[in-house]
Amino acid sequence: MPGTIKNRPAPKKYDLTIIKFNDLNHNGKHDSAEPYLSNWEFKVTGGDINKTYKTGSNGQINLRDLTEVTYTASEVMQTNWVASTNATQTAKIDGGNKTLVFGNYYRAPNTR
Question: In which domain, by residue range, is 80 found?
Answer without folding.
Answer: 14-106
